[in-house]
């Protein structure tokens, strides 16, 4: 049962009916209590029991005040019933909070309560469900391992063939940066390879006829890459090996194919060691 006509949905036909009924009920209670208080007071004075008459009149005036509030609530847009009859009683305190949630726009000049302005729950069931889920997720987060370090993408492990290709590409780039002249010490300094591995890697380019071994004035060995000396073969072209990285990649791919072909022929020409030992 609705205790105020403002609790009825807007646009419903029962809203004006409830308002009229509430006003008639409040008016009848107010008139009945006022008349009762006046009659009891007159009767008590006539019988000489003024104290009892005043007590009964006070009770009647109290009910009359309640009836006046009901009538006032029906005549005005203010929620007097919700605000005064429920708010200050323990029994209806929950009901008062529930009622004030449905405050209309006409309450005190379209005033909005801050209490319900940022309400994120739909109803009590939604509140319990969301609260349980929040607790559950919070509990899972507490037991989860804490990893404050930033997660880095792990690079896939390279095969030995891919590692060899990467090292050869690094050598070609270093040779290009050093104008086609590269020593073992410079290669070992620029990369993580030791001196022996750097010399073996440069010797592979000698076998592929990509580099030439020359002796400097100081007596040290220098590996010269003619493709990168003074801008390469196309010295006057805008697409020289020094200016365009794509040309370096294409040159390396061609050289790698030639080297693999020569390496396969060299392996086939080698005699089998196991047969040699048996003989």
Automatic annotation (TrEMBL):
The keyword Membrane applies. Residues 127-136 have a biased composition (Basic residues). Residues 113-168, 258-279 are annotated as: Disordered. The chain crosses the membrane at residues 20-43, 50-72. It comes from the Bacteria. Keywords: Membrane, Transmembrane, Transmembrane helix. Residues 137-168 have a biased composition (Basic and acidic residues). This is Uncharacterized protein. It comes from Persicimonas caeni.
